[in-house]
Structure formats: C-alpha cells, structure tokens
Design brief:
heterodimer, A: about 240 residues, mainly alpha, about 80% helix, globular, B: about 220 residues, 6 helices, about 0% strand
Chain lengths: ~240, ~220
C-alpha cells in the first residue's frame, strides 16, 4: 500500500479545509442544493402542520418533532444530492486518488454537509417557532447546542453512508434504509431536548442530559466513521 | 459439514423438547403467574439477538480490515440470525406485554432501541440483496454501527425509567427459575451455533459454485 503523503504542512487540517472550500465554492456558484433543500424542508414543515393541526392548533410537542423530522428529511435529500453531484463529475474518484489522508477527505465533506444543514436550520427554527407559536428562541445557547450536536451526529453517519453508496445500485432508496435506524437515537435525543426547551419552566438539567447524550453519540459516530472511511472507500 | 453437527442437532432437538417440562417445573412468579413463563424463551432469544449482532459486527470489522471472504460469509449469516432471533424477541415480548402491562407496545428505551437494532439487521440484508457490486463492504460498515448499538440496548434499561425490567432481575432469580433460564439459554445458544454453521456452509457452497462457474468461462 503506498504511503500517504500529506498535502504540505498541517496535512490533515489543510486537506479537510481544501475539500470544504471546494464544496462551498461549487455550491455558492449555483446554490442549487441549498435552495432546493431549503424549499423541501419548508414544504415538509407545512405538510406536517397540515396533517397534525386540529381546529387551528398544533399538537403539544408538535414543534420539536416536526423541526427534527424536517431536518432529517432535508438532510437526507442534501446528502443524496451532494454525492450525486460528485458521482456525475467523477470527482470522488479523483479525490480518492489524490495523495491525501482519507479521513481528512471525510472531515472536509462532513463539514460541508454540516454547513448546508446549518443554513437550513437557520431558516427552519424561526419558521417552526412562528407557525407553532413555540418559544424556540427563548434559550438560544442551549438550542444551538442541541441543534449543533444533533446535526453533527446525523451528518457524520449520513456522510459516511452516502459516500459508501455512491457506487451502489438503488443508492437513493438505500440511503434512508441505512441511515434512519442508526440515527434514531440522535433524532430522539434532539426531539426530547428541544421539547424540554419549549416547556414553560425549562428544566436545564434535563436539557444538559440530552445534550451530553448527543455529544457522546457524536463522538462514537465520528470515531467509527473516521476508522471505517478508508476501507469502505477502497475497492 | 463437520462431524459434530448432526449429533449436536439431535441434542438440540432433545433439549428443546424437554424445555417445556423444565419450564413448567419452575416456580410461578408472584404477580404474573403462568404468563411470566414466556420469559424463558423471550430472554434467551434477546441475548442471542444481541450476541448475533456482535458476531456480525466483529466479522464485518475483520472483513473490512483484512478482506477475508470467510468473515464476510460469517457476517451475512450472523445478520440473518439477528433478524430471526430479533423477530422472536419482538413477538414474544408484545405477547407478554399485553398480559403484563396491558399494552402491546410501549415506546420505552429498551423496546425502541431493540426495534432499531433489528431494523439495522434488516437494512444489512437489504443492502446485500439490492446494493449491487461492492454491497458487501457497505453492509459491513453498517454492521459496525449496528454493533455499537448493542451495549446501548443492554444498558439503557438501567439508566432510564422504563416499564421493561432492568438487568438486575436475572442475577437475583430464585434457584429453580435460574435453572430453567440457563437451560433455555443453553438451548438457544446451541441452536444459534448450529444455524450459524449451517448458514455459513450454504454460503461456502455458493462461493464454491461461483468459483466453478468462473473457471468454466475461462
């Protein structure tokens, strides 16, 4: 196996930054994935609102659940589209042939997905707060902690599986099949934490517990992904 | 097939035939009475379900990092058995729950995480079947994440307030219930080993057939 040379000094970080910058530049030029994902997420929220609203009022814990479902669905779409773009231009193969640390490539792609999902969340949170009269913005620090740790966990597994599936058959339907069972703990923790933040008198110890669980899940998932990215992407 | 296979299959059949009698001889549990006795099949199948997920995960790791096709066949067989024993748990559990708790299902952490672990095993099989070339590695990656779920499933019931009994129950069982339980565990463990060996044997035959077809083409 050829030795991996890092790209200049600070090899790992620099590689990850270069991959991230490439993704951001490509995305900013057309904004295709950003707009379509955002629109899909908003339609998702509206769909759930129409399905669950009774006599003009949404169910009690509806806001938290609907927010996270929209994030999960939009995230799946964004993952599929991002790697479809890679597949069409065969850039993934080019990336893998470059003399760069494979885990660094993974981290670069992961940060790109997290950036995309964060933009979606910046729009979704006020929208859900507005549509469901939910005081989502009352504890911005804790809400950000919940959203960031949940997004990292979801994206870590999603990026790994999407990259793996790039060359597989039925990749569009297999991504949710693989992704959703594994990320259920992340979604559950995210929803419970968000719902706890929406209570009239917030129990911060409960929120802290769920955030701690989310962070633990993040560590496990990112570690597993970094460990398995190389053998999974090698033929 | 190895020499021990047929005799052990016979032994397993005899043990399973004897198990209803041994279970009937155990004491009745205080609150649930006869209904509790499904425990002697529910708990061993749950343990084998988790064990099978671990076997699948370890075999998948060895396949991913060493490339051994034998480990891949073992992982595939273990994933199928995870689905099988998981199905047994998820049927016996609700049957018991309906009588003991009054509901077929509760979204508590033990039940939810077990269901998710079971779905991961299903996803493994779907990927192997429909993923096309390279799906053996994809599924192996998935199996590793599934294995990471197993400690969570086991330990979760001790840290959350759930309706499902905690792991402290088994060490504190009275002697005759304990005997019936460990006998059932032995039955299920033997069944698991036999089914695993049989399934791996099938995959080995398939691999040998493929190799023969390929050598014909040359």
């Amino acid at each position: 196996m050829p030795a991996r040379r890092s790209l200049g000094e600070g090899g790992f970080g620099r590689t990850a930054w270069l991959v991230l910058r490439k993704d951001l530049m490509v995305e900013v030029r057309s904004l295709e994935i950003a707009y379509t994902t955002l629109f899909f997420a908003i339609s998702c929220v509206l769909f759930f609102a129409f399905a669950l609203v009774k006599e003009g009022k949404a169910p009690e814990d509806g806001a938290a659940g609907i927010l996270w479902i929209a994030i999960a669905f939009a995230g799946t779409l964004a993952l599929g589209r991002t790697f479809e773009r890679e597949r069409q231009s065969e850039t993934l193969r080019a990336l893998l042939m470059a003399p760069a640390d494979r885990p660094a490539i993974y981290v670069g792609k992961l940060l790109g997905i997290i950036a995309l999902l964060s933009v979606a969340e910046l729009v979704l949170v006020p929208l859900v707060a507005f549509l469901f009269q939910a005081p989502l913005l009352s504890h911005p620090f804790w809400l950000s902690a919940v959203l960031i740790s949940g997004t990292v966990g979801f994206s870590a597994v999603g990026t790994l599986f999407s990259a793996m599936l790039v060359r597989a058959r039925s990749r569009d339907v297999l991504l949710p099949v693989l992704l959703y069972p594994i990320t259920v703990p992340v979604i559950i923790a995210g929803v419970r934490a968000t719902a706890a933040l929406l209570e009239p008198d917030v129990e911060l110890s409960l929120v802290r517990f769920w955030v701690a669980l989310l962070l633990a899940l993040d560590v496990v998932f990112v570690t597993l992904a970094l460990w398995t990215f190389e053998p999974l992407m090698t033929d | 097939m190895p020499k021990w296979f047929l005799p052990l299959t016979g032994l397993c059949a005899v043990m399973f035939a004897a198990s209803p009698f041994i279970i009937a001889n155990a004491d009745y549990e205080a609150t649930m009475g006869l209904v509790q006795k499904i425990f002697y099949y529910h708990l061993p199948s749950a343990w084998i379900f988790l064990l099978s997920a671990i076997v699948c995960g370890i075999a998948s790791a060895r396949f991913l990092f060493r490339g051994s096709p034998r480990q891949d066949r073992l992982a595939y067989a273990a994933a199928e058995l995870t689905v099988l024993f998981g199905a047994i748990v998820l049927v016996t559990g609700p049957l018991w729950a309906r009588k003991a708790w009054g509901v077929w299902w509760q979204w508590d952490v033990r039940l939810t995480s077990s269901l998710m672990g079971w779905m991961v095993a299903w996803a493994y099989l779907l990927v192997r079947k429909y993923g096309g070339p390279g799906s053996d590695k994809l599924a192996a990656g998935l199996a590793l994440f599934g294995m990471a779920n197993v400690p969570f499933v086991y330990v979760s019931v001790n840290y959350w307030r759930t309706i499902h009994p905690a792991t402290t129950v088994v060490p504190t069982l009275p002697v005759d219930m304990g005997l019936a339980l460990w006998f059932s565990v032995a039955c299920f463990l033997l069944l698991f080993v036999l089914l695993l060996r049989l399934r791996v044997h099938l995959e080995e035959q398939r691999a040998r057939l493929d190799a023969l077809y390929l050598s014909l083409d040359e």
